[in-house]
Structure formats: structure tokens, C-alpha cells
Design goal:
Layout (H helix, E strand, L loop, with lengths): L1 H13 L15 E8 L6 H14 L17 E7 L3 E5 L7 H12 L10 H15 L9 E8 L6 H12 L3 E6 L23 H12 L8 E4 L4 E13 L1 H11 L4 E2 L5 H13 L8 E8 L5 E4 L5 E3 L19 E9 L2 E7 L4 E8 L9
Parallel strand pairs: 1-2, 1-4, 4-5, 9-14
Antiparallel strand pairs: 2-3, 6-7, 7-14, 8-14, 9-10, 9-12, 10-11, 12-13
Helix pairs in contact: 2-3, 2-6, 4-5
The chain binds 2-acetamido-2-deoxy-beta-D-glucopyranose (NAG) (4 copies).
One 2-acetamido-2-deoxy-beta-D-glucopyranose binds next to strand 12.
Pfam family, one: VWA
InterPro entries: C-type_lectin-like, C-type_lectin-like/link_sf, CTDL_fold, VWF_A, vWFA_dom_sf
Keywords: Signal
């Protein structure tokens, strides 16, 4: 009995935190193409180490291939390159994790007779693998990733342009330099140049893949700080509406949409900054969030599909709010009190702009 009460207390305090991105490797859902240098400097043992690392990254029960009853799976393609590039495995080659483990060494093969490796040709081939494996909208809702293993790199305007085009088309590029003096950072996406020799390398790659797998639907903004990605997305709406129509607009505009929560300072600040950055809002800023009280004194946050959670201790009330006694339905809006401060106030029927929220697509939340 006391254990049950203890668990209930824990789960109710957990539910009032800002959501973080899912981090369940067994439910990773991506399309990943490896671009592996097989020139002589890479060495056969280097190729074996790269293959072992690829297996290790998916060793947390990641479902490899497609066609599982749970759509959350990861396809793996492999391109090898020297002065030429070839498709060692297209995105449908590996049908399971065991298939990957048994066959990757053979698929990657041994080093070529070439001393040179031209990354540009490898990247171009990887693009072909993604284009053909994802043609006709196949898995267009899955994030595409290119992971490069290279023992040499010459930065040319051509390879910089190729990588820029890939990144602009929504592909994340992770680079793993396989020699000390190789600097692949001009090619990689932000935070995606990973040291091959670190004892943390596998975890670093897994964490990058989990972050890439955490993204927002079109037109929603991912809630982030410089060091942290939260598991929610917001959309600001400047057109004034009363709270109940605003709430309906959020749930009608996207599956699982609701009026935004502000469960910590990061989120409160992020929403304020996003409103300040939006050309449609004007000072003094005021906008509804998903906090309300039906008139009995208890404050609730909106959640997806009509669910609610009680307000916890973290709050951002302006001075003299909330009113001491609540007897009629009351709705919370942020009201700007100085150029840099904004806090919560209550209203009954006034109309304001409003902030909608939806949780991120991630390993805990598949978005079709
Ligand atoms: C690269 O591919 C072309 C066309 O398939 C071929 O003629 C050439 O010999 C290849 N070069 C190397 C170094 O493999
Ligand atoms: C707002 O704009 C500034 C300046 O462009 C930018 O640095 C900041 O990241 C933006 N903040 C948000 C939350 O979009
Ligand atoms: C107040 O009303 C809400 C429904 O709007 C209900 O869920 C909650 O339990 C009520 N709280 C109290 C203290 O009666
Ligand atoms: C917001 O706060 C300012 C400054 O305290 C106040 O003048 C204004 O009336 C408030 N706006 C609303 C809608 O209550």
C-alpha cells in the first residue's frame, strides 16, 4: 500500500515536468546511409572497426529494416568510396539486426587498391541511395541521415557545395574522422562531428541519432535552449480569440494539439522570445496559454486529447495574481509588464493571441 502511494506521488510529480525527447533506442525510426571510405589509408582493420561500431550503435534492440508491426524501425544503407563510389547495401538490404550483424563485414568488404578517397563522390552516391530508397514518398516522415567514416579529406568547393545541398534538403550529416589530422567539421551538421576514438563514441552517435529522431511537425517550432532540446513544439497565433475558441483552434489544427504549457523557466522564456521574434505580435505582448480554472480554485494545464494535469509549484504569476478567490471560470494569459518581463494574469472573456503546442515526433511518439 505505501509503495503504491509512493509510486502515485512520483508519477504525479513527473507528469508536471516539461517533456524531454524520447530516448528509447529500441524505437529509433530513421533512414541512415553510411558513407565509408575504403581507400588504402583506411586499412582493413579500420573497416572492421567501423563495421563493429555501426553494429554497436544499433545494439540497443533497434529494429533494423522495415515491415515490422510497429512502424518505428531504422533502415541502414551502405556506400563505399575511394575515387569511385559504389552501393554496398541499399536501404532495403538489411531486414533485421541479426542480418546486419551477420553480413555487414562482408558487405563493407576490404580496402580497395586506391590510395585516394574523394568524399564528394561518396556523398553523391549516398544521395542516390536515399532518393531511390525513399522514392514515391516511401518513409517520407522518417528523418534521413548520412554518417561518414573517412581516413582522409580534402576540402574542395565542390564537396562543400554537395554537403550544403544535402543539409539544406533536410538530411543530417554526421562525420566520424578515422585519422587524427582529418577535419570533417566543414561537412557535418551542427554538433555532429564525432571523435572516432573516444570511449564515448558509440553513446555520442546514439545520442545524436536520438536527437535527430526528435523533431517537430511542419510550421511548429522546436522548444530548445543552447544546451537542451525539449520534447515539445509550439506555434504562435497572433489573431485574438477568447480562451475556449483558442483551445479548440489548437486541437483542430493538428492531431494532439493543445494550448501551450509553461512548466519551467526555459519554456516560459522560449515562448516569450518566439512571440517577440514574430512580426505579427505587437507590444505590449499578451497571449493565452493552456492554464485554466473552472471556478472551483484548482488550476489545470491542458494536454493532448482533452487531458489535464494540475498546476505544480512552478508558476509565473504577475504581482497580485492569481486572485485570492476564484468563483467563475478563469483563463490565464501572459501579460508583458516591462520590456523584458512577462507573467501570468487571469481573465474571463477577453480575447488575446494564443500559443499552441504539440509533443515532438520521437522514439516515444511516432508521427505518420
Ligand atoms: C570508376 O568507375 C569507372 C566506371 O565504372 C571505371 O571505368 C573506373 O575504372 C573506376 N575507377 C576505379 C579507380 O575503380
Ligand atoms: C529570436 O531571434 C533572435 C535573433 O534572431 C535569435 O537569436 C533567437 O534564437 C530567437 N529566439 C527564438 C526563441 O526563436
Ligand atoms: C475542480 O473542477 C475540475 C473540473 O473542471 C475537477 O477536475 C477538479 O477535481 C475540481 N477540483 C476540486 C477541488 O473540486
Ligand atoms: C498588462 O500589464 C500592464 C502593466 O501592468 C497593464 O497596464 C495592462 O492593463 C495589463 N493588460 C491587461 C490586458 O490586463
Amino acid at each position: 500500500m505505501s509503495i503504491l502511494i509512493f509510486l502515485l506521488i512520483i508519477s504525479s510529480s513527473v507528469s508536471a515536468q516539461e517533456r524531454l525527447c524520447g530516448n528509447d533506442l529500441s524505437n529509433l525510426w530513421l533512414d541512415v546511409v553510411y558513407v565509408i571510405d575504403n581507400s588504402i589509408p583506411m586499412t582493413n582493420s579500420g573497416l572492421i572497426r567501423a563495421s563493429a561500431q555501426i553494429i554497436s550503435v544499433f545494439g540497443g534492440n533497434t529494429k533494423i529494416g522495415s515491415g515490422f508491426s510497429d512502424p518505428r524501425s531504422t533502415r541502414v544503407g551502405i556506400v563505399t568510396y575511394n575515387t569511385n563510389a559504389s552501393v554496398a547495401a541499399d536501404l532495403n538490404r538489411f531486414g533485421s539486426f541479426n542480418d546486419l550483424v551477420s553480413n555487414i563485414y562482408g558487405v563493407v568488404g576490404s580496402v580497395s587498391s586506391s590510395n585516394q578517397a574523394i568524399l564528394d563522390v561518396g556523398l553523391t552516391k549516398a544521395k542516390e541511395v536515399l532518393d531511390s530508397g525513399r522514392a514515391n514518398n516511401v518513409r517520407s516522415n522518417y528523418q534521413p541521415v548520412i554518417v561518414i567514416y573517412a581516413s582522409q579529406f580534402v576540402s574542395t568547393s565542390s564537396v562543400l557545395k554537395t554537403s550544403e545541398n544535402l543539409k539544406n534538403s533536410g538530411i543530417t550529416i554526421i562525420t566520424i574522422p578515422f585519422a587524427k589530422n582529418v577535419d570533417l567539421s566543414p561537412i557535418s551538421s551542427p554538433h555532429s562531428n564525432i571523435d572516432a576514438g573516444g570511449y564515448q563514441t558509440v553513446t555520442d552517435i546514439q545520442n545524436r541519432l536520438l536527437q535527430i529522431n526528435c523533431f517537430c511537425p511542419n510550421n511548429y517550432i522546436h522548444v530548445k535552449t543552447s544546451t537542451k532540446n525539449y520534447g515539445s513544439c509550439i506555434k504562435v497565433n497572433s489573431l485574438a480569440a477568447a480562451w475556449i475558441p483558442a483551445r479548440l483552434a489548437c486541437s483542430a489544427s493538428i492531431a494532439g494539439g493543445y494550448l501551450a504549457n509553461e512548466l519551467n523557466q526555459d519554456k516560459h522564456d522560449f515562448i516569450f522570445e518566439t512571440v517577440q521574434n514574430s512580426t505579427n505580435f505587437h507590444e505590449p505582448y499578451s497571449y493565452f496559454i493552456g492554464l485554466s480554472n473552472s471556478g472551483n480554485g484548482t488550476w489545470f494545464w491542458e494536454r493532448a486529447n482533452g487531458n489535464k494535469v494540475a498546476l505544480s509549484t512552478q508558476s509565473f504569476w504577475n504581482p497580485n495574481y492569481p486572485p485570492q478567490s476564484i468563483t467563475t471560470p478563469s483563463y490565464v494569459f501572459n501579460n508583458q509588464t516591462s520590456s523584458s518581463t512577462i507573467g501570468w494574469q487571469t481573465t474571463g472573456a477577453s480575447a488575446f493571441g494564443y500559443i499552441c503546442e504539440v509533443i515532438t515526433c520521437d522514439t516515444d511518439n511516432y508521427c505518420s
